Amino acid sequence: MDQIGQAVHAFPGIGNIKLIGESVREYLSPLFIAAENYIDNDRHKIRSANFFLRATSGIRMMDFTKGQLLMQDALEYLQEQCSKRKKFRVKNEWVGTIDGREEGLFGWISANYILGSLTENVTINKQQINNYQSSPEDNVDSYGFIDFGGGSLQIAFELPYSFIHQSAMITPADIVHVEVETMQQKLESLEKSYGKEDDQIERDKQMKYVYVRSFEGWGRERMFDVLQEEMVYEIVNKIRNDDDAFDGGLARIEDNKIVAVVDHPCIPVGVDNVIFHLEGLTYHTFLRQ
């Protein structure tokens, strides 16, 4: 996030940078500069900052060796930049690829932190889950999270403690235990622990049980790739099987490219021209409105 709360991001994902001829340094440089400007702002009073780079499905889905080399290049760039600045630190273990479960959990934590449910006492309207007996330990005051990312889809949401043990559909491997401490709890802990050493302070933390699942290959960009392949093959099959395809306006040749009419429910409303690339060929498709 920048100084006014806007997300700073690079597109496409880091897993694509070598495909479009950009180096790792050129890709990461704007992000590093944005972070540096934020940290150096006097009003934030940040003494030091740790840099973490966590790659997700784009790297997970590529060749393992290629992904490792790419992340090593990124680590070397960050180490070089941090060595020039006293405020910044980076360690080897802070740069790497995370699995889908970690990705979903980090997303859930980030969303709920921004919305205040992890730092404040927040009451959220929620619907009762049918067919389970509640208990005093049940306390679900957080927001659910869904990330329709590039290569994968993540969902994460908190479940009532008693529901976890009553549902045959939930396994221990699906649940992540997250300890949180609201600002009010921190203040109460400080009042109780006045004059005590830090390791003697009793923390009144709350346990949250977060269900996390990741679906590899179901991300927005990956699904569009699948849709693209289906539509192109549909176009090709129509042209092959319809002798009147060109005479009837279904398709035409333009600049040595196939230009065809497509009608598909997954294309956004208002889009009238999509360019597909498949197996080295380019297809221009004009969509029926």
From TrEMBL:
Gene Ontology BP annotations: nucleoside diphosphate catabolic process
Catalytic residues (UniProt): 103
Pfam families listed in its UniProt record: GDA1_CD39 (PF01150)
Binding site for ATP: 150-154
Entry keywords, A to Z: ATP-binding, Coiled coil, Hydrolase, Nucleotide-binding
InterPro entries in the cross-refs: GDA1_CD39_NTPase (IPR000407)
GO cellular component term of the entry, any: membrane
Segments forming a coiled coil: 173-200
GO terms, molecular function: ATP binding; nucleoside diphosphate phosphatase activity
Protein family according to the UniProt entry: Belongs to the GDA1/CD39 NTPase family.
Name under which the protein is recorded: Apyrase
Species for this entry: Streblomastix strix
Lineage of the species this protein comes from: Eukaryota, Metamonada, Preaxostyla, Oxymonadida, Streblomastigidae
